[in-house]
Amino acid sequence: MDNKKLADLLYPNALNVEDIEKKYPERNLEKGAEVTRFAPSPTGYLHIGHFFSALVDYQIAKASNGVFYFRLEDTDKKREVEGADKIALEMLKLLKVYPDEGCLLEGEKGCYGPYIQSQRLEIYKAYAKKLVSEGKAFPCFCKKPENLAEVKEERAKRYGAEFSNEEYDSCRNLSFEEIKSKIEAGEAFALRLKTKGKNGDRIKFVDAQKGEIEMQANTKDVVLVKENRIPPYAFAHPIDDHLMKTTLVVRGEEWLPSAPAHLEIFDALGFERPKYFHAPLISKLNENGGREKLSKRKHPEADMRFFIKAGYPVLAIREYVLNLISSAFEPWRTKNPEASLDEFKISPKDITAVMPIFDIVKLNDVSKNVIARMSAKEVFTEVLKWAENNDEKFALILKQRPDYCVKVFNIDREGPKPRKDIFNWSMIEEYFSYMFHKPQCFDAVEDKKQFKTFIKVYLKEFNFPLNKEEWFENVKLIAGKLNYAVDNKLFKQQPEKYAGNLAKACEHIRIALTGKKDAPDLYTLISILGEKEVVERFETAIKF
Question: Which residue of 52, 330, 480, 492 has the fewest CB atoms within a 10 Å radius of its CB?
């Protein structure tokens, strides 16, 4: 058969491949720079597994002074969810893993576009024609079988029962005249690869993390272009990665069985193979202690928006996922507590080869450490940002009293051992509820009469303290009048004997101000609340 004549019949108006290649020159990057891409299909939200891959792409590109770009693989229109690409980009921007180029929120950026596959159909058509003209692809007019039984039956008819496992397509043997007749009759066709593989053939390739892998070679005449003239991932991504000069393809290990077919397509097109890194899937322990894949249907934490809505700091989310990616991250962070995450350098060989387990407890611990390192002003800024999108009432409180809120968030923050009780912003209002709302009940009181008696006397003689020493002396003085403590001289001589009495006095003050037995340093609370608020709370406590 005259393959060039067939190519002209199938694709009469296709672009010239040589002209296309000229529009995609080599990138001007230093030696060793990696070009990575995040190329999701717009079929839903940003899955944590996708973010895992995107973060690997980002870190490797940054570490090598390379390029990280965003490409939208939107050829599967049946599964497309409107706005999914925007959701993914907004999440990447929020999580500070934003691409250098591609189809971005602000528009297309870069010289290697279009970066949306549905806008590249003429490019795919040109390479499809090239393969036909070289005798490497053929049109298939077969109707797609509905189920597996039909597939097996069709193969048995074509090849005989003993060859029913072969996946060569019978249309590869059609003559030019038969093909022309079908096209003139208006029959639609898919384009298939004329594979060279046979049962028993082996293929070797190198995975960037796993090393050399040997697998059964591809034996299937895989579809390159569907009947609707749109290519599937198997054909589109080799062309895009070649033209956009991708050097490393990071994808989930569920794609590993497809690697032989994809590599054969690269070879058929005459392209240099990129490095593949098949990332492990993220799992979760089920109630029986076994591992299961994080599922969109079963696990809310599979959606990256879950963490933002819950109020986990962006830095904590990134640090936790880097923990999942590489065991080297935690020691690095310990040695470099203030360093930017962009400084953490990884290569595929550093990345875990086993299925990492998502652990919310570990995430909370990471987040506690991140929040503990932040200043009160940084906490205020992040809490306000979160509240504006998730809690309007709390956002209003924050906006009305910014200076006061910063003082509240600074409680137990400065010092060599800051408290580590908070792991997300949604906890803040409840954690500091006594600083934003007067106590509504005093259930923590054990002796109501004793409590009221002390607060009445304390309120009568209360003077807003100038310093902590003055405040403490005042508490001891008033507690002593009610036999809660003794005079200062005896207290200094035998502090252990009278510590319990003084502690009870402080407990009454703490409950009156916060409604709780446990709260931060009393003098700090009084100083921040201010005289008017403290007096009002004592008056409320007396009336309960």
Answer: 492
